[in-house]
Amino acid sequence: MKKQITIKDFEGLLVWSYTRVSSKEQFQNNGSIETQVKRIKSFASENNLIISKEFDAKYESSKKINTQKTLKELLDAIKKTHHSKKPRIILIWSPSRFGRAGAEHIELFVSLRRKYGVYLYSVSSEHNTFTDRNENEFSTQLLYAQRENFSRQDVIIPGMINALEKGTFLGKTPRGYDHFGPRVVDPQKVQAFQEIKLNSDGHLLKEAFRLKIYEAYTNKEIQDYLSQRGLHIPKQTISVMWLKLFYTGHFTNSLVENKIIKGHWEPIISIKEYDLLQKILSGSVQQGIPKMNGKIATPLIPKFLVCDDCNRNMTSYHNKRKGIYYYKCPSCNKTINATTKQTSLNEGVHQHFQKVLESLSFSKEFHPLFSKQLEKIIDFEFSNYADRQRILKTEVNQFQEKFDTMEYRFAINEISKEIFDKHGSNLKKKIQEKNDIIAKAPTKMSNHKKFINNFLKMAENPYQYWDKLNYNEKRTYQNILFPDGLRFSLKNKECRTPKMNLMLELTNCYSDCYTNKKEKTQKLKAFESRLVAGTGLEPVTFGL
To answer: What is the pTM of this model?
Structure first.
């Protein structure tokens, strides 16, 4: 008969320790890691055991092994440690502190003994894995711990689901909100009922979302904007922030599958804005122009100011000695002042650009007549889109019917999985393409007059409007006005007439029609041709 192994057989040998708490409640109820460590060290000292490494898992659930990061670190360390320095025992407080995943943890401690000769020992209950018989008892303890979890779930989970469906948020609130309730840690936020309130950081984040959605700010620019106002957020955190549904006043939870739940807190953005933001992040929607970095003092670059002599995008630089900004063509290597100075021989590019914009000014006396004509154009254009959308929706329905038929044939084994995957994916792709076109098409404008008044306010003096904008707004505005950029001849020191937005072409033509009587017939024909031009599927850029 084999000698019974006891803890005394390991005197003077190396051991490791592993402690764990899964929640703050356990931490506070005299089950903290500090308490476990203290008692394990006392036990090791009494039995002449040498603890060479300690692994402390704070707030780690053991329902599944893959949630126990610290335990994984311990296992990796055992694999990498030389056999002469490997521990003979891993001291734990109790079997349930080792894990509650039942069979998963049983398989783990069996492999520890058989592969590496490492045993487990519970300081509080003396359960261990020294022998097969001991392993059996240890397994029973682990299965009992797992059963305890199941029992708790049977009682707790239905109540949690009921609370969730009523809009009660379970978990830590994201940045920008304070959580009040009966179980919060901060004494100043303890109250009888749960309440989530927007704080000062939340008001800053609300503006950050607006800048991201409507002004095409980059993450770095938003990070700088928030830092200047005392809110420091890592760049990676900002990227994750855009994806949080919580900021819409809604949330999801795995206990309530496939359901978006409305919460009881003030949202930062609407669901519609959240959907738009996701499209912007995925690249399926562009607000204005793609975001590009540039110098505030030289907003005509990058990729807007073009050298007309060699057809290259111009750049800019700052002469620190003179304190002057210049635009430069990297191909012909010629430069010109960004702004006119007293000592300048030629006007700066910004003054040339000013003249171009001022030449497009639309006199206020023409506004009433133009407004009526523009309303007719908008009505005509949107009626075309409505007809096209009906056709597209019919095509989508036809493709969907074909897909449903193919899916049914696959379900009853009339076609193979390979054929279904191949042709089914093609149909899904076509459906998505049609839906994307439908989504991008403009919807009926509910207030033509408001839109037209805003446009005419800008058109009355385009340069003054541009000059009041910040860098990002200028970039958006000038690219909408001149989609192909501004062409400038460094050789002749003059701007070339750029291709203009359709709206500006209309106002420009309208002015010519009524100010140049001699060219009346020719100009009117040109104007009329712009009104009846077909637009195909791409929407006309009305919005400025």
So the answer is: 0.43
